[in-house]
Amino acid sequence: MLMIVLDTTIVNVALPVIRADLGFSEAELPWVVNAYLIAFGGLLLLAGRIGDLWSRRGVYLVGIVVFTAASVWCGLAESKGMLVAARFVQGAGGAFTNAVVLGMIVTMFPSPRGQTKAFGVYAFVAAAGGAFGLLVGGVLTQLLSWHWIFFVNLPIGIATAVAALYVVPPDRGPGLGHGATDMLGAALITGGLMLSVYTIVEPAAVHGWGAPVTLALAGASAVVIAAAVVREATAADPLVPLRIFRSRPLVVANVIQILAVAGMFGMFFLGALYVQIVLGFDPIRTGLAFLPLSVVMGLLSVCVTDRVVRRLGALRTGAVGLVLMAASLAWLSRVPADGAYVVDVLPALLLFAVGGALEYPALVSLAMRGATARESGLLSGVVNTSAQVGGALGLAVMAAVAAGRTAALRADGQTAAAALTGGYRLAFGVGAALTLVAFGIALAAMRSTAVAAAAAPGVERPGWPA
Known about the structure:
By secondary structure, the protein is mostly helical. The chain has two domains: 2-168 and 237-455, Growth Hormone, Chain: A (Up-down Bundle), CATH 1.20.1250; 182-236. It is built from 19 helices and no strands. The radius of gyration is 21 Å and the shape is globular. Mean pLDDT is 81; it is low at 459-466.
């Protein structure tokens, strides 16, 4: 997980250097990131299901090998096309690895307390990877070259694969014959998700949400996903049994997660831009600026969250975390153009760290608590797909809002710094609103008997049908 998250932020730091070295245009450069996101987001659900049918550890190891080999390919790239192709393969490897991680946690830690602690570690690594990537990316790019941001994955990938062989217990599913014959369903699910992610990260970000090409692709992706749902509902042996979505806790947790992760991705991305462009931090100082978030979130996720969940229940714990996350984004929505890190940024990062440490492990625990050994990989894929779609959607919306507001302020004659800050402030406000909507859904869900039973304090087994 660290390797996958690290890779995303490391690449963001190195994009200007990659553009100059390989000759990317402004329009082509986003494909260094988008090629990875499309493969990653599109294959998560399929990879999780293959893990259930064949072997979660097997899928995990295949993903590590593909991701690591593709990282070396990225580092050796000498042309634009070669790098974009390697990033697509790298995203596929990342999807196969990440899709089954939550499912492996469920099977290795059967008690809710153990799961919550493990999910806390997972959340910490995800947050730490984002901040650590900014720091490592700046160091490697400045002191060596952009190629090393990919080569660094080689020793990590080898060490992780070897450790997995000894630490992760082997498992065997019922066989690929159970569901793997649904090739049409697999093609529709993967194609629909890839098209959806592509629509968000490319035409929506470049041309706007109301552009004809964006609307056409959004409609096409909706049609493909609807066809996938019809196929899975009527197939004799579906790849993705739709009965899992009858679980209200699973649906509620994933809807909340989409909105919360949307705000989180925007906070990391736009927060880093504010610190670098407006406050004038270099990449290394930017990485150091976000380290307090990682440290606080890590300590709380590992040492505190499981106790709070046992006392308040998963849903109430998640709701408290959402309030703190919304407060953090609201704090950032007032940053000035001549701001100071200690006064204007650090308090928001610490608030977000506490909120994220409570929200993410608790909601993932709620989503996965009903997972059986035969479907934990599929549920893991669902949770990760929700997070990926939410992140891509949130980043696209908040970046578009920030760009639009900045352009309007520049047209009114404001300075570049003031206009940029005004755009960031509005985007942070949108992120706070999305998080508050997630909080409202959590409050409404507390009134549901089925969800409340699954999220109650001390629940050892789900109180709802799997």
